[in-house]
Design a protein that fits this description.
Blueprint (H helix, E strand, L loop, with lengths): L10 E8 L3 H5 L14 E6 L9 E6 L4 E9 L10 H11 L14 E10 L7 E9 L9 E9 L5 H24 L1
Antiparallel strand pairs: 1-7, 2-3, 3-4, 4-5, 5-6, 6-7
Length: 183
Amino acid sequence: MSSTPIPTSTFVTESAVIPAQLSHVWHLIKLQDFSSWWSKLQGDDFIKGASPETDVVKWTFKDGTAWDVKQEEHSVRLPNHPPTQTMALNWIINSGSGADTRDTQTIDHYITYSIIVASPALSYSSVISTIRCYPITSGTAEGQTFVTWTANFSSDADAGVIEDARFKRKEALADLAAAVTKK
Protein backbone atom coordinates (compact mmCIF):
# COMPACT_ATOMS: atom_id res chain seq x y z
CA MET A 1 0.00 0.00 0.00
CA SER A 2 1.57 3.30 -1.09
CA SER A 3 1.05 6.48 0.83
CA THR A 4 -0.74 9.34 -0.84
CA PRO A 5 0.70 12.83 -0.34
CA ILE A 6 -1.36 14.98 1.98
CA PRO A 7 -2.86 17.92 0.06
CA THR A 8 -1.60 21.14 1.57
CA SER A 9 -1.55 24.84 0.94
CA THR A 10 1.72 25.99 -0.57
CA PHE A 11 1.48 29.46 0.94
CA VAL A 12 2.84 30.41 4.37
CA THR A 13 2.31 33.64 6.29
CA GLU A 14 3.86 34.36 9.66
CA SER A 15 3.75 37.69 11.44
CA ALA A 16 4.89 39.42 14.59
CA VAL A 17 4.78 42.74 16.36
CA ILE A 18 8.38 43.85 16.75
CA PRO A 19 8.90 46.16 19.75
CA ALA A 20 10.79 48.85 17.86
CA GLN A 21 10.10 51.71 15.49
CA LEU A 22 9.83 50.89 11.80
CA SER A 23 13.12 52.65 10.97
CA HIS A 24 15.05 50.38 13.37
CA VAL A 25 13.45 47.20 12.01
CA TRP A 26 13.59 48.13 8.32
CA HIS A 27 17.31 48.90 8.54
CA LEU A 28 17.93 45.16 9.18
CA ILE A 29 15.75 43.82 6.34
CA LYS A 30 18.41 43.56 3.66
CA LEU A 31 19.49 40.20 2.26
CA GLN A 32 23.15 40.87 3.07
CA ASP A 33 22.30 41.70 6.71
CA PHE A 34 20.14 38.74 7.74
CA SER A 35 22.99 36.97 9.56
CA SER A 36 23.26 39.97 11.91
CA TRP A 37 19.93 38.94 13.48
CA TRP A 38 18.80 35.48 12.25
CA SER A 39 20.39 32.92 14.59
CA LYS A 40 20.21 30.09 12.01
CA LEU A 41 22.54 31.93 9.63
CA GLN A 42 26.30 31.68 9.91
CA GLY A 43 26.95 34.26 7.21
CA ASP A 44 25.68 36.17 4.21
CA ASP A 45 27.88 37.32 1.35
CA PHE A 46 27.24 39.16 -1.92
CA ILE A 47 27.89 37.05 -4.99
CA LYS A 48 29.53 39.49 -7.37
CA GLY A 49 28.47 39.25 -11.01
CA ALA A 50 25.79 36.62 -10.39
CA SER A 51 23.02 38.76 -11.86
CA PRO A 52 23.29 41.89 -13.98
CA GLU A 53 19.90 43.15 -12.81
CA THR A 54 19.84 42.68 -9.05
CA ASP A 55 21.61 41.50 -5.91
CA VAL A 56 22.33 37.86 -5.18
CA VAL A 57 23.47 36.91 -1.69
CA LYS A 58 24.72 33.56 -0.42
CA TRP A 59 23.15 32.61 2.89
CA THR A 60 25.17 29.99 4.74
CA PHE A 61 23.26 28.30 7.55
CA LYS A 62 24.90 26.92 10.68
CA ASP A 63 23.86 23.36 9.66
CA GLY A 64 25.93 23.66 6.45
CA THR A 65 23.03 24.38 4.10
CA ALA A 66 23.71 27.17 1.60
CA TRP A 67 21.22 29.17 -0.49
CA ASP A 68 21.90 31.70 -3.21
CA VAL A 69 19.09 34.20 -2.67
CA LYS A 70 18.10 36.61 -5.44
CA GLN A 71 16.46 39.91 -4.59
CA GLU A 72 13.38 40.13 -6.79
CA GLU A 73 11.94 43.40 -5.47
CA HIS A 74 12.83 45.97 -2.85
CA SER A 75 10.79 49.08 -2.16
CA VAL A 76 12.94 52.16 -2.34
CA ARG A 77 12.90 55.84 -3.25
CA LEU A 78 15.81 58.23 -3.26
CA PRO A 79 15.57 61.03 -0.68
CA ASN A 80 13.73 64.22 -1.61
CA HIS A 81 13.04 63.00 -5.15
CA PRO A 82 9.96 61.55 -6.75
CA PRO A 83 10.44 57.91 -7.78
CA THR A 84 11.39 57.61 -11.43
CA GLN A 85 12.62 54.77 -13.58
CA THR A 86 16.03 56.42 -13.96
CA MET A 87 16.45 56.83 -10.21
CA ALA A 88 15.30 53.28 -9.58
CA LEU A 89 17.79 52.02 -12.16
CA ASN A 90 20.58 54.07 -10.54
CA TRP A 91 19.67 52.62 -7.15
CA ILE A 92 19.73 49.05 -8.53
CA ILE A 93 23.11 49.64 -10.13
CA ASN A 94 24.59 51.32 -7.04
CA SER A 95 23.14 48.86 -4.52
CA GLY A 96 25.25 46.05 -5.92
CA SER A 97 28.36 48.22 -6.16
CA GLY A 98 28.85 48.77 -2.47
CA ALA A 99 27.62 52.38 -2.71
CA ASP A 100 26.11 53.70 0.49
CA THR A 101 22.33 53.55 0.04
CA ARG A 102 21.41 53.74 3.74
CA ASP A 103 20.06 57.27 3.33
CA THR A 104 17.36 56.13 0.91
CA GLN A 105 13.77 56.35 2.03
CA THR A 106 11.39 53.55 1.26
CA ILE A 107 7.72 53.83 0.52
CA ASP A 108 6.16 50.43 1.11
CA HIS A 109 8.87 48.69 3.20
CA TYR A 110 9.03 45.27 1.60
CA ILE A 111 11.60 42.95 0.09
CA THR A 112 10.90 39.95 -2.12
CA TYR A 113 13.47 37.25 -2.78
CA SER A 114 13.76 33.79 -4.29
CA ILE A 115 16.15 30.90 -3.76
CA ILE A 116 17.97 30.29 -7.05
CA VAL A 117 20.59 27.74 -5.92
CA ALA A 118 20.54 25.47 -2.87
CA SER A 119 23.02 23.01 -1.45
CA PRO A 120 21.84 20.44 -0.71
CA ALA A 121 19.17 20.67 -3.40
CA LEU A 122 15.64 21.60 -2.36
CA SER A 123 12.88 18.97 -2.48
CA TYR A 124 10.60 21.40 -4.36
CA SER A 125 10.96 23.44 -7.54
CA SER A 126 10.75 27.01 -6.26
CA VAL A 127 9.76 29.46 -3.56
CA ILE A 128 9.36 33.22 -3.53
CA SER A 129 9.24 35.04 -0.19
CA THR A 130 8.30 38.54 0.88
CA ILE A 131 8.93 40.41 4.11
CA ARG A 132 6.75 43.49 4.71
CA CYS A 133 7.04 45.97 7.54
CA TYR A 134 4.25 48.28 8.68
CA PRO A 135 4.41 51.02 11.31
CA ILE A 136 1.80 50.57 14.04
CA THR A 137 0.25 54.01 14.36
CA SER A 138 -2.34 53.61 17.12
CA GLY A 139 -3.36 51.47 20.05
CA THR A 140 -1.25 49.84 22.71
CA ALA A 141 1.45 48.85 20.19
CA GLU A 142 1.79 52.36 18.71
CA GLY A 143 5.40 53.09 17.72
CA GLN A 144 6.16 49.43 17.11
CA THR A 145 6.37 47.51 13.82
CA PHE A 146 4.13 44.81 12.38
CA VAL A 147 6.12 42.41 10.19
CA THR A 148 4.79 39.72 7.84
CA TRP A 149 6.97 37.08 6.18
CA THR A 150 5.28 35.09 3.44
CA ALA A 151 6.38 32.26 1.17
CA ASN A 152 4.71 31.00 -1.96
CA PHE A 153 6.02 27.52 -2.83
CA SER A 154 5.69 25.57 -6.06
CA SER A 155 2.98 22.90 -6.04
CA ASP A 156 5.50 20.09 -5.45
CA ALA A 157 6.28 21.32 -1.88
CA ASP A 158 4.87 18.88 0.67
CA ALA A 159 3.39 19.45 4.12
CA GLY A 160 6.79 18.96 5.77
CA VAL A 161 8.32 21.76 3.71
CA ILE A 162 5.44 24.08 4.55
CA GLU A 163 5.62 23.38 8.28
CA ASP A 164 9.41 23.79 8.28
CA ALA A 165 9.01 27.19 6.57
CA ARG A 166 6.39 28.20 9.12
CA PHE A 167 8.66 27.22 12.03
CA LYS A 168 11.73 28.96 10.55
CA ARG A 169 9.82 32.19 10.00
CA LYS A 170 8.44 32.21 13.54
CA GLU A 171 11.92 31.62 14.93
CA ALA A 172 13.48 34.26 12.66
CA LEU A 173 10.85 36.87 13.62
CA ALA A 174 11.62 36.19 17.29
CA ASP A 175 15.33 36.66 16.47
CA LEU A 176 14.54 39.95 14.71
CA ALA A 177 12.62 41.18 17.75
CA ALA A 178 15.52 40.23 20.02
CA ALA A 179 18.03 41.99 17.75
CA VAL A 180 16.20 45.32 17.72
CA THR A 181 15.56 45.31 21.47
CA LYS A 182 19.31 44.84 22.14
CA LYS A 183 20.10 48.19 20.51
